[in-house]
Design brief:
Number of helices: 13
Strand content: 25-35%
Helix content: 25-40%
Strand order of the largest sheet: 6-5-14-15-16-13-18-17
Distance between the termini: 41 Å
Structural class: alpha+beta
Number of strands: 20
Largest sheet: 8 strands, mixed
Length: about 400
């Protein structure tokens, strides 16, 4: 049994705490904020996330809070015409073994937090911002902003896209600003006209913008997310945005999406950021997971999914016995690097080629999507949604991922 430190108490950090503690280790979670909570709005969870959550013991609780979606709809945002739809019931659930669902972030976070609090093997500490670490042959010391030093046999950096652990381990500077600004709003479902309360994730694509909406909170709320390719140059996190400003950013919206966008209140803005894939997330007894290791844009809807996959795989790789952490962490890095790099790069390409093309490129996209059968659409997402990290089923990612990691050349 080892004492393992985890920097960061978000979804990835708590999932990793559960995974590692269930292998018989003691875990200390160091959270920088003064409370354990999750900010933000709605997120999408593919079947691969639910397979991982089942291994962690919280899958049923998350399912009970989630809205199980019937289909993904891709719409022309200017004409309001249906381009393509991917069914998510019937054959989809039979093929992938779990639903595709949407949740408020707290609906995945709260079950993880409750399970961590119920564990005698997990210590949860707030106001514990890690600034740096040092290590030797015996263990790792986390140096906190308060000046306190916390000792363990290994350190897992789950402290997000601006990770202090990554800053020391990789040293690749600030995140890459995408130039895309997303505006988010969550409203009560009763404000949505009944005829527009679709049990779908619906995406309206326009020239250099797109608009997504879906129900969350067990169907009590409606999540709105509108993204514009506006060449934003600086990172923004949750800045208030005036309603009129948001509406004016999407002047070409068709009648139906315009009605929905106008329902939004208390808009907040983020400028999307990610990082380039890197080959190495380990430094001796220190390893990165989740957004600290492979932050990705929203377009593949896989950020949280990949974080919980990381958690399960890392727990399995560490195992139940006393171990040589540097070797185990390198093994974890090797097992996860290609898949997560592929997801990062595919997310970028989806933003460019699927969501934001203009003119003839948009027409070609519509024609291509409209030509695909439901089975062909399911084939497209097989490598993401069909992976089951709990039982070792990992599907080879697209070539783009192998190229990112220097493989397949």
């Amino acid at each position: 049994m080892a004492k393992i430190l985890i920097a960061g108490g978000g979804i990835g950090g708590l999932a990793t705490a559960l995974s590692v503690s269930r292998q018989g280790h003691q875990v200390v979670v160091l959270e920088s904020r003064d409370t354990f909570t999750e900010l933000g709005a709605g997120i999408q969870l593919g079947p691969n996330a639910f397979h991982a959550l089942d291994v962690l013991g919280v899958g049923d609780e998350v399912r009970s809070r989630a809205v199980h979606i019937d289909e993904l709809r891709f719409m022309d945002g200017t004409t309001s015409e249906l381009v393509a739809t991917m069914p998510l019931t019937g054959e989809y659930r039979e093929r992938f073994g779990n639903p595709y669902a949407v949740v408020h972030r707290i609906d995945i976070y709260a079950p993880l937090l409750d399970a961590a609090r119920a564990s005698d093997a997990i210590e949860l500490r707030t106001n514990a911002q890690l600034l740096s670490y040092r290590q030797d042959a015996e263990g790792v010391t986390a140096v906190l902003a308060s000046g306190e030093e916390v000792h363990g046999e290994a350190l897992i950096g789950a402290d997000g896209i601006n990770s202090f652990v990554r800053k020391q381990l990789v040293g690749d500077g600030f995140p890459k600003v995408s130039g895309h600004t997303i505006y988010r709003s969550v409203i009560p479902m009763e404000k949505v006209p009944e005829e527009l309360r679709w049990n779908t994730v619906t995406l309206w694509a326009g020239p250099k913008w797109h608009f997504v909406h879906y129900p969350i909170g067990g169907g009590k709320y409606f999540n709105l997310a509108a993204t514009r390719d506006d060449n934003a140059q600086e990172a923004v996190i949750g800045a208030p945005a005036e309603k009129d400003f948001v509406l004016n950013e999407f002047p070409d919206l068709g009648e139906i999406p315009r009605r929905l966008l106008e329902l939004g209140e208390d808009w907040k803005a983020w400028v999307l950021c990610d990082r380039d894939p890197v080959e190495k997330w380990t430094d001796g007894r220190v390893v990165l997971i989740g957004d600290a290791a492979h932050p990705m844009l929203q377009y593949a809807a896989q950020g949280a999914c990949q974080a919980v996959e990381d958690a399960v795989v890392l727990g399995q790789v560490i195992g139940t016995e006393a171990c040589e952490f540097p070797q185990r962490f390198e093994k974890f890095n090797g097992e996860r690097r290609e898949r997560t790099a592929a997801t990062q790069l595919v997310a970028r390409e989806m933003g460019k080629q699927l969501y934001h093309p203009i003119g003839e490129a948009a027409k070609a996209r519509n024609a291509l999507l409209a030509s695909l059968t439901p089975e062909q659409l399911h084939d497209k997402v097989q490598w993401l949604h069909g992976t089951r990290v709990g039982d070792g089923t990992v599907i080879e990612p697209p070539v783009i991922g192998r190229q990112a990691t220097g493989e397949g050349r």
